[in-house]
């Protein structure tokens, strides 16, 4: 049985052919690390380190969190990391991450959150029978004792922000909230929080039980669609620039053109 993830579903929605290359053919590719992913990872790691300290009763100073970020960046950075946007350098991204952490720290000080878990693994049983499972990781899970709400927190380091309307329809955290409801019997209200670090802005959304029920059904339908897919069409978009299967995709397309050519279709 396949256990799905939000990124697995998104890959299919982005491009069925990419899904095939990645999950069915399992084409070995040298996964190029992009600078956006690298920076995002380093910021997440620094915040993970920070909140783990808070769980044990320490509140590190901003300079300590930044030092953690810097050490980790210089330990792991290498020249192979791909910079797609040629107008920026790796230093620009390093500074961006630095800025994100500083602003986040200032905005959220003094950190009195009641933290339940960091990088929490979640398993969602979509059909209640264990036939359609989805797993994921929550950046941070809090419990607000005053409002009795569970809070899912997600840090975003991308250079774009979603609108409230988009967040009210966001699938990933809503799916994770299903997992929290299944794990914690007192989890009635779950606040979904996004921290858009590039904009120093926190936004939130809530889902009704009815909305979550619909989401479960829609997600099961999407999984069923993937499981009976046989055509695996390509879907070109700006995201192709970041696709690790560009070379394979080009070969498939030229093969298709050859077939058409032999049938004098072009
Ligand atoms: S390069 Fe684009 S069209 Fe080709 S597999 Fe990747 S995402 Fe799909």
Question: What's the SSE blueprint?
Answer:
Elements lengths: L2 E3 H9 L1 H9 L10 H21 L6 H15 L13 H19 L6 E11 L7 E12 L4 E8 L7 H6 L2 H12 L6 E7 L4 E5 L3 H20 L17 H17 L4
Parallel strand pairs: 1-3, 4-5
Antiparallel strand pairs: 2-3, 3-4, 5-6
The site of iron/sulfur cluster has 12 residues, from helix 2 and helix 9.
Give a summary of the structure in a few sentences.
The protein has nine helices and six strands.
Domains (count): 2
Number of strands: 6
Work out the strand percent: 15-25%
Taking all Cα atoms into account, the compactness measure Rg is 21 Å
Structural class: alpha/beta
Q: What's the helical proportion of residues?
A: 40-55%
SSE pattern: EHHHHHEEEHHEEHH
Oligomer: single chain
Mean pLDDT: 93
Q: Low-confidence parts, pLDDT < 50 over ≥5 residues?
A: 260-266
